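Issue 218. Parser rejects a valid record. Input:
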Amino acid sequence: MLVLLLGIMDILAGLSLAILKFKVFNLAWFFVGYLILKAIIFFNPFGSLMDVLSAIFIALAMFQIYNFLTWLFVLWLIQKGILSFFR
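Output the parser choked on:
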């Protein structure tokens, strides 16, 4: 049940990062905190690093700093969330 909840939160974080391009700052700071907290609690070297980098890119996107890596992190978060439904 916890895996499904975290998967849904990852999908929402990815969607939040995607819509920041349109200056919609709905819950972006919440997702920055969520991803960093999740990286600390569920320490996995690669997964935690990607969560922290995703949080950094969400924070940068709130200041309208985008590049192609931003869209890779959107895809990373959404695919990670979708794959959590199949565990």
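Fixed in the parser; the record now loads. The chain has one domain: 2-86.
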